């Protein structure tokens, strides 16, 4: 994906590339995820952080807008996204600018409507005393080890587990409390801390 609203695709292992143009209302922030070789989704944000969700059913040759200005009752969705199947999409919104709470959103109808995944007590942004800037709160995309069991990481480092496919989430006290953020979840029992140099895998 480029900042000129263009997606490049290859069908020969990278020997050649063909372009597909996205709608003009897409900005320069994109997230893309394919379920298989044919079905994929894109979320792009315009200059006002409004999210447009698009779907391709032909390997990225053409794209159809599913919904514009996608939002939940808790706020707009982000562009960091993953599709776990043709109907279930996840989007993470990490607000580093306005101090609002990080949001994990989910769609279970192929991107048409979105709801807040309701992670309990995800912290809002923290203010840096030295320059009054803001550290935004962050949340990862979920990692599912089975269709029902998954884990999400957030600032802190705090981790939330689900046993019902993401319908509900509870903080996992054994995984939380490493005081490293943000984190990338690898499995239900291992994750990466980016505050360390070099990054460490914690268990």
Descriptive keywords:
single chain, 203 residues, mainly beta, five-stranded antiparallel β-sheet, four-stranded antiparallel β-sheet, 0% helix, globular, disordered C terminus
List the helices and strands and how they pair.
Blueprint: E1 6-9, E2 18-21, E3 29-34, E4 40-45, E5 51-56, E6 64-72, E7 75-76, E8 80-83, E9 89-93, E10 103-107, E11 115-116, E12 126-127, E13 134-135, E14 143-144, E15 150-154, E16 158-162, E17 170-171, E18 183-187, E19 190-193, E20 200-202
Describe this entry's structure for a reader.
The chain has 203 residues and is an all-beta fold. Helices cover 0% and strands 41% of the residues. The chain has no helices and 20 strands. The chain has strands at 6-9, 18-21, 29-34, 40-45, 51-56, 64-72, 75-76, 80-83, 89-93, 103-107, 115-116, 126-127, 134-135, 143-144, 150-154, 158-162, 170-171, 183-187, 190-193, 200-202. A hairpin with a 5-residue loop joins strand 14 and strand 15. The radius of gyration is 17 Å and the shape is globular. The relative contact order is 0.10. The model is unreliable at 124-135 and 199-203 (pLDDT under 50).
Q: Residue ranges: pLDDT <50 for 5 or more in a row? A: 124-135, 199-203
Mean pLDDT: 76
The overall strand count is 20
> What would you call the shape?
globular
Report the end-to-end length measured between terminal Cα atoms: 34 Å
Main β sheet profile:
5 strands, antiparallel
Helix/strand order, N-terminal first: EEEEEEEEEEEEEEEEEEEE
What Rg, in angstroms, do the CA atoms define? 17 Å
> How much helix is in the residues?
under 10%
SSE-based structural type: mainly beta
Give the strand order, joined by hyphens, for the main sheet: 3-4-5-6-7
Number of helices: 0
Strand content: 35-45%
């Amino acid at each position: 994906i480029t900042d000129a609203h263009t997606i490049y695709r290859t069908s020969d292992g990278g020997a050649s590339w063909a372009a597909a143009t996205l709608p003009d209302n897409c900005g320069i922030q994109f997230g893309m995820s394919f379920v298989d070789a044919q079905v994929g989704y894109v979320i792009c944000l315009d200059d006002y952080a409004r999210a447009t969700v698009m779907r391709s059913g032909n390997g990225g040759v053409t794209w159809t807008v599913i919904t514009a200005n996608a939002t939940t009752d808790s706020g707009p969705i982000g562009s960091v996204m993953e599709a776990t199947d043709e109907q279930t999409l996840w989007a993470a919104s990490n607000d580093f600018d306005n101090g609002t709470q990080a949001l994990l959103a989910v769609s279970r109808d192929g991107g048409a409507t979105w709801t807040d995944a309701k992670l309990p007590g995800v912290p809002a942004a923290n203010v840096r005393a030295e320059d009054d800037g803001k550290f935004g709160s962050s949340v990862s995309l979920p990692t599912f080890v089975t269709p029902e069991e998954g884990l999400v990481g957030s600032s802190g480092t705090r981790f939330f587990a689900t046993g019902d496919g993401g319908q509900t989430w509870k903080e996992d006290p054994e995984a939380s409390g490493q005081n490293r953020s943000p984190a990338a979840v690898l499995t239900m029992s291992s994750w990466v801390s980016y505050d360390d140099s070099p990054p460490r895998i914690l268990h």
